[in-house]
Amino acid sequence: MTKHSDQSPPSTAQEKEITNLEGIKGSESGQLIVVGIGASAGGLEALQALVANLPPNSGMSFILAQHLSPSYRSMMVDLLEKGSNIPVVAARNADKLVPDTLYICPPSYNIEVTKDDKILLSLMGENRHIPRPSVDMLFESIAVAKGESALFFLVQVPMDQEEFEPLKGKADLV
């Protein structure tokens, strides 16, 4: 299903590198596949390239958490929808995830996914994760809610392997 950059098997952390998103489809079991995307504040160009390559009929939902200043007025929805093959929307609390849609976490909030495929937004300061929105918090919630029906992309986010510990054994890391 996924393409690897080389023929070696995935590591113990089940890391996979996807070099081409074509052919990746939602789960045949009917379970929604949720793709978490984490980006640093400087990741706009990389995000635009990623979003431009999201397949239009994959059957997957995509959620973006990008580190932003709480006082920053984000124009990310407008900037990313121009080159996208799928709808790009601002995430709202309790929204039910829809396949083939990219949800953008609003500034001043953290974003999570529930087991019933809904978005949970929490104001900054209500939890322990810094910076915000917390990519770790998003990825952990997707891993718990979706298990093997989860994929993750990191775009210009400098993280070390210790930060992936909560995800090991719960989902594939892309």
UniProtKB/TrEMBL annotation:
Q: Which reaction does it catalyse?
A: [protein]-L-glutamate 5-O-methyl ester + H2O = L-glutamyl-[protein] + methanol + H(+)
Q: What is the protein name given in its UniProt record?
A: protein-glutamate methylesterase
- Outline the extent of the CheB-type methylesterase domain: 34-155
Q: What is its EC number?
A: 3.1.1.61
Look up and give the organism this protein is from.
Answer: Thiomicrorhabdus marina
Q: Which UniProt keywords apply?
A: Hydrolase
Does this UniProt record's set of keywords contain Nuclease? no
Kindly indicate whether the keyword NADP belongs to this entry.
no
Q: Which InterPro entries match?
A: CheB_C, Sig_transdc_resp-reg_Me-estase
Q: What class of enzyme is it?
A: hydrolase
